[in-house]
Amino acid sequence: MEEASQKGLPVCRHLFLHYPTDERVQHLSYQQFLVGSEFLVVPVLDKGKRKVKAYFPLGESSSWVHIWTGKVLSKQGSEEWVEAPIGYPAVFVKVGSHVGEIFLNNLRSLGIL
């Protein structure tokens, strides 16, 4: 929110805003998005589906942690099928993110993780 208010960027963002040199993100119009620059969300868009195909963009240090499993995904420019059952959406936090660590610690303290 702070970044959005200071720089005028939307909270929910197309990946192109942060990965302009990765041509593959240009074709992801609604399949996934960023919340700020540190959270990658890949929603389930088809009824009854329990997996989604996530694309992990090319970037300077783009390793991501799946918030529910803790699995680190560090293969940049790759796609991976990820479990996303109801109640456990495919959400990833950028490795090394201060905001992401606070978020994960809050989920742990609430007993959600």
TrEMBL record:
InterPro entries assigned to the protein according to its UniProt record, in alphabetical order: Glyco_hydro_31_C (IPR048395), Glyco_hydro_b (IPR013780), Sulfoquinovosidase_GH31 (IPR052990)
Residue intervals of the Glycosyl hydrolase family 31 C-terminal domain: 8-97
A Pfam family of this chain: Glyco_hydro_31_3rd
Name assigned to this protein: Glycosyl hydrolase family 31 C-terminal domain-containing protein
Lineage, opening ranks: Eukaryota, Viridiplantae, Streptophyta, Embryophyta, Tracheophyta
